[in-house]
Amino acid sequence: QVQLVESGGGLVQAGGSLRLSCAASGRTFSSAVMGWFRQAPGKEREFVAAISWSGSVTDYADSVKGRFTISRDNAKNTIYLQMNSLKAEDTAVYYCAARRFWTIKTQEYDYWGQGTQVTVSS
Questions:
Q1: Calpha distance 11→119 (Å, rounded)
Q2: Hey, how many other C-beta atoms are within 10 angstroms of the C-beta on 78?
Q3: How far apart, in whole angstroms, are the C-alpha atoms of residue 84 and residue 54?
Q4: What is the mean pLDDT of the chain?
Q5: Phi/psi of residue 103, each to 5°?
């Protein structure tokens, strides 16, 4: 069992940066694949980034490649999403999620946080 709590969201101007954090509890965190997802109003939840349990493998949605960076600190049971060069279209609720095996498919993640709002003003 993994419990996830996101933080770090807020209001930022276009071109600015934010860093999201996701604190996890549960002894299986260090072996879990972790992902960031987002959901804008009226849209389906979509994949943003994922990271393997060791941190050696990452993947990103095309829309955020080169601007967002996912990382993890297993000693702190925390993952991060550094978001740079933010755009208005990045506005959404951002969720972290966990599962045992690698995937970027939203519906295959087992554990979810409550989400944190990111609003980018243009």
A1: 5
A2: 18
A3: 24
A4: 95
A5: -165, 160
Alpha helices in 1-122 (DSSP H): none
What pLDDT, on the 0 to 100 scale, is given for residue 7? 98
Q: What is the pLDDT of residue 29?
A: 77
The token pair that represents 89 in the structure block: 């279209």
Residue 120 has pLDDT above 80, yes or no: yes
Q: Tokens in use for 43? A: 């849209």
Report d(CA 44, CA 101) in Å as an integer: 23
CB 118 within 8 A of CB 92: yes
DSSP bridge pairs for 39: 93
What angle is formed at CA 48 by the lines to CA 88 and CA 93, rounded to 5 degrees?
55
Tokens of 88: 């208005």
Quote the CA–CA distance of 92 and 96 in Å, as a whole number: 13
Residue 30 pLDDT > 90: no
- Taking the C-alpha atoms of residue 41 and residue 63, their distance in angstroms, rounded to an integer, is 17
Residue 30 carries which DSSP code?
G
| Structure tokens that stand for 76 in this block | 């702190």
Tokens of 40: 């804008």
